[in-house]
Amino acid sequence: MVTIGELISGLKTVRTVGDTGIEVTDIQIDSRKAARGCLFVAMRGTTTDGHQFIPKAIELGATSVLCEVMPEETVQGVTYIQVPDCEDVVGTVATRFFGDPSSKVRLVGVTGTNGKTTIATLLYNMFRKMGYKAGLLSTVCNYIDGEPVPADHTTPDPITLNRLLGRMADEGCKYVFMECSSHAIVQKRIGGLKYAGGIFTNLTRDHLDYHKTVENYLKAKKMFFDGLGKDAFMVTNLDDKNGLVMAQNTKAKVMTYSLRSMSDFKGRLLESGFDGMLLEINGREAFLRFIGKFNASNLLAVYGAAVMLGRDPMEVLTVMSTLVPVNGRFDAIRAPKGYTAIVDYAHTPDALTNVLTTIVDVLDGKGQIITVVGAGGNRDKGKRPLMAQESVKYSDKVIITSDNPRFEEPQDIINDMLAGLTKEDMQKVITIVDRREAIRTACMLAQSGDVILVAGKGHEDYQDVKGVKHHFDDHEVIRECF
Predict the structure, then answer these.
(1) pLDDT per residue as tens digits for the range 94-105
(2) Tens of pLDDT, residues 348-403
(3) Which residues touch 204 (CB under 8 Å, ≥6 apart)?
(4) I want to staple 255 with a disulfide (CB 3.0 to 4.6 A). Which of 76, 164, 179, 264 is the partner?
């Protein structure tokens, strides 16, 4: 057991009221989960302020409170620690409470706009196939070796994160691979963690509803690499103009990967089809069950990180050849009528371009592309017309539909997308608000040899409408159509 005094030792505090020698049994930022002896951290969120829930946490048994504003009335027997910024310290406090779990595993973070889930998941699957116990923290699901733990955010809050890492260490996991979102980096959710390495994938427009500018978004990603220690490694994408920018101030050992330039991990895409690719990495060839240049780039990052973690290059290539795509990331489903439907999570202009140009390359003019696409509600509106433009540019027909409208009207989102299109573009486009009908229509239009891209939701098995998640799975709808 650890005392409140030990948890805050060395941290900048404003004022302390009460006994710092009391023992802490748990840490919570959700007042509803508070129990006897726990420390409640009053975090300021984007929609709620934890300070207003301090009385509720104490009522449920919290005996200590970490806050930025000291309550006007304090409760006898409860210890209060006032700090300038709870976000700054909660990571360190959580790390100490859970026994510094990230120092007991080799933790690798993956950040960038696209490819995070694929890279983190493939590394997790690879190391398990190599015989190691491993953990995964990702958008789709968290895993403690083979045990799934549902994920609510790309990167959990610091307390949940350290609790999960603690369980992973206790279960004997030697390696943990995690996605690091820009939100989590800025909000210091990964504060206090020790990383063995970091991977940079790419950077394109995303999350500007939160970061406001691309420069702020870039700085958020860069903060992760700036914080890596001198014993860590960084594997960065030389094919992205920001690849070396990310490495400017890092203390980590910088290694590069590229499909175009000389680099530490040099790849060359020799052949590509809907059944996979022949990829050469550092002079060795391997057939891999993935499609497209963007996946070739992801696989180079996986290869580079595995080698930097001490694995033999030949063993890495051999295991890579047995890996399969991640759920909802360029999932190809063959129809009895002879066309192919592809489900992909692409929900940014750049991700759509990557997926569509891959389909164009593989088809080589021998079939039509029908794209079903929408945009999420209550998110960056600026990318909506760009997504429509990219879809029209590379497709023969485009059906614009709903994604997760959240608290917006689906037709308003569709109208925002249509605003980016010319009269000529509109000749390729139809709009169907109901996503199920949109997918059905695409399947009716498709002929043998064609490809349908259903973009935006990927692994998700729900549609978020007015705060309610209704069951909806693009894969299921496509198979119903078949």
Answers:
(1) 999 999 999 999
(2) 998 899 899 999 988 988 999 999 999 999 988 999 999 999 999 999 999 999 99
(3) 113, 114, 348, 349, 350, 351
(4) 264
Res 154: pLDDT: 56
Distance CA 332, CA 337 (A): 14
Q: Which residues pair with 254 in a beta bridge?
A: 234
Contact 235, 199 (CB under 8 A): yes
- Residues 6+ positions from 89 with CB-CB distance below 8 Å: 8, 11, 12, 66, 83
Q: How far is CA 434 from CA 183, 391, 403, 431, 437, in A?
A: 31, 19, 9, 9, 5
CA angle 319, 230, 175 (to 5 degrees): 30
What domains, with CATH codes, occur in the chain?
2-87 (3.40.1390.10), 101-320 (3.40.1190.10), 331-481 (3.90.190.20)
